[in-house]
Amino acid sequence: MITLALLALLLLPFLLVGAVLARFSRINRRVLVRWCAIIYFAAALLVLFGVGPYLAAWTIVHAGTRPQDRSLKDTPARHSVAYEDVSFNASDGLKLSGWFIPPTSKNAILICTHGLFRNRIEMLERIIPVARAGYGALLYDTRSHGNSDPGLISLGYHERRDVLGAMEYVNRRYQDSADHPKIVLMGVSMGADSTLEAAAESNDYAAVILDSPFLNIRETVARHSWLLLRLPGFPFDSLFLFWLERLAKFDPARMDAEKALARIQPVPLLIIASEGDNRMGTVAARGLRDEAKSRLKILKIYGKEVGHGAAARLYPAQYSALILQFLEVALSPTAAPNDSDAGGTTASSAEEGSLQ
User: Fold this and answer.
1) Which of 29, 46, 189, 341 is 20 to 30 Å apart from 94, CA to CA?
2) Who contacts 257 (Cβ-Cβ below 8 Å, separation ≥6)?
3) How far apart are CA 129 and CA 259, in angstroms?
């Protein structure tokens, strides 16, 4: 629809100019139509594969929280959960804003990273049941989102520094504590991949939860170019990545979930995806589960009625039960003795997978 609208808008001046020339000039009409068509198709190619990839990359690099999420006013207090407004620095110095929910009866804190165009509220529905169960949590706005400082968006590469900064904040907060809480990393969509990239650069965490991750930027761009614009992945993806590298100042090839997974600690891993996610699909989730070195690795696949990152909204009770069950097993002293006992579970939205 977006592509058709652009092409229709582009066609209007050609129709207007062609009509004027046909009315007032002596140019043969067949020649006029032929040249108008040639110039129009050349202009369309320039817009779609010249200006288009640049504008798409610029939009991503300067992305922020979408209007409908900015209008949300939910807080942990509305759910009778105690919290603090906090701020801390990403590892590259950007100031980030968030909510800190202290743990009450569980000695663990979840660091929760939202997806592109969203803010910390996206993670709230996932965390309230966890907080009520006694776990702590740090929900924060990533760079350029919510109330955090602006920064270049890179679909996860720069954002890994936000996750590292959140980990450093928790460690500083409990640096004098005799019973330092365990850190669990959790992210959704782009937040899942930035979480994975951060985990590859640290060893200070006890478990990882990835909801709707993607494998790499090129594959994701190719999928979205067809899904959103009905344009072929090639050459749009290559042109988009060309501009993304220059605008965001990083090499997109460095964002690779499988390579990051190979470098993380072999801690318990929960991956969540859905058959109805036409943006990311389940290939990434299945591939990451298969490649993971974790002794406890669980894959949960929801059904076709569940879209991208929508499992927590559509099946809140099942989702929270899955998270709590995973945390109970993953953080226990004897988590999953071997792969055969804990080899991940694939299940539909109507049936929760069991954890061994």
Assistant:
1) 189
2) 193, 196, 213, 214, 215, 216, 284, 288
3) 32
**Sequence letter at residue 60:** I
Higher pLDDT: 349 or 296? It is: 296
Residue position matching structure tokens 């939009």: 59
Q: What's phi and psi for 297, nearest 5 deg? A: -135, 120
Residues paired with residue 108 on neighbouring β-strands, in sequence order: 182
pLDDT at 345 over 60: no
Please report the domains of the chain, with CATH numbers, ordered by start residue. 1-61+217-249 (no CATH), 67-216+255-342 (3.40.50.1820)
Mean pLDDT value across the chain: 88
- CA dist 171 and 204 (Å) reads 9
Gap between the Cα atoms of 228 and 181, Å rounded: 43
Quick check: 263 and 292 in contact, CB under 8 A? no
Give the pLDDT score at 148: 98
Report the C-alpha gap between 199 and 181 in whole angstroms: 17
Q: Cα–Cα distance between 281 and 278 in angstroms, integer?
A: 5
- Would you put residue 113 in left (φ > 0), alpha (ψ -120 to 50) or beta? beta
Sign of CA dihedral 282, 286, 289, 292: negative
CA-to-CA separations, 245 to 48, 50, 157, 158, 239, in angstroms, rounded: 19, 16, 11, 12, 10
Helix (H, G, I), strand (E, B) or coil at 239: helix
Start-end of H helices in 47-120 = 52-61, 67-70
CA distances from 344 to 16, 59, 143, 289 (A): 61, 37, 33, 7
Q: Which of 54, 90, 266 is nearest to 164 (CA)?
A: 90
